[in-house]
Design a protein that fits this description.
Bound molecules: coenzyme A
Shape: globular
Number of helices: 6
Strand content: 25-35%
Distance between the termini: 46 Å
Strand order of the largest sheet: 1-2-3-4-5-6-8-7
Number of strands: 8
Order of helices and strands: EEHHEEEHEHEEHH
């Protein structure tokens, strides 16, 4: 468990966490997830999901949660996916979501993740800004992706292999200053052009 300005983070431990995770997610995300969706992620990838607490986890309710998965994508890349992220309204803008995302990224790196993707509503400025501050880029716009009819942005983070993945010692090799071949294997993501969001419906329609 790690702490940061009296916020504690721990991995999902089992079904007893489920009601509070569901409460945190259902109060904040527009998409209506059923319990089976939560179990799909939490039972298969419990080590990728984290909860944030304001004090001793045994004596308080969680104030933030992240739920993820990780699998091979089309036999091509080891892909992490952030399915849900929510921080209690009273605890926002204190770095809690950033810390939760970093915890999950670190756990995915343990399993050799190469890219991490997620979707968020096209006008969720808090989420877009959070993920972009962590290095994610907007890869695609997905038309009417959500049940509420809103478009989504697909965001992606390319994860270069960590130094510890490189077993060969290249310190005496003059070519060691070149990018490692495994780094070059990272998919060549290109950010899409984004028209800034406007609350003015006419601006938005004319801008598309
Ligand atoms: C999005 C959300 C998870 C952010 O949680 P948070 O703990 O407040 O985020 P952090 O404090 O870690 O913010 C990190 C960065 O994100 C950006 N950010 C966060 N909230 C923001 C807001 N309301 N407006 C603009 N940028 C924001 C900022 O760049 C911030 O860095 P800064 O504090 O140095 O400016 C939270 O607002 C939330 O739960 N929203 C509802 C659920 C949701 O939208 N989930 C994401 C779905 S993909």
């Amino acid at each position: 468990m790690s702490s940061n300005s009296q916020i504690f983070y721990r991995q999902y431990t089992g079904e007893s966490d489920l009601p509070r995770i569901m409460a945190l997610v259902q109060s904040e995300l527009s998409e209506p997830y059923v319990i089976y969706t939560f179990r799909y992620f939490l039972h298969q990838w419990p080590h990728l999901s984290f909860l944030a607490y304001p004090s001793d986890p045994d004596n308080s309710d969680p104030i933030g949660v992240i739920v993820c998965k990780q699998s091979m994508h089309r036999n091509r890349s080891n892909r992490g996916y952030i399915a849900m992220l929510s921080v209690d309204k009273n605890w926002r803008k204190r770095g809690i979501a950033s810390a939760l995302v970093r915890n999950s990224i670190d756990a995915m790196k343990e399993d050799g993740v190469e890219e991490i993707v997620l979707e968020t509503e096209f006008d969720n400025l808090a989420a877009l800004s959070l993920y972009e501050s962590l290095g994610f880029i907007r890869e695609k716009r997905l038309y009417r992706f959500y049940l509420n009819g809103k478009d989504a942005f697909r965001l992606v983070l390319a994860v270069p292999p960590s130094d510890s993945d490189d077993s060969s010692d290249t310190s005496s090799d003059p070519s060691s200053s070149l990018p490692r071949s495994s780094t070059l294997r990272c998919p060549p993501y290109r950010a899409i052009n984004v028209i800034p969001y406007s609350d003015d419906e006419d601006d938005y329609i004319s801008g598309r």
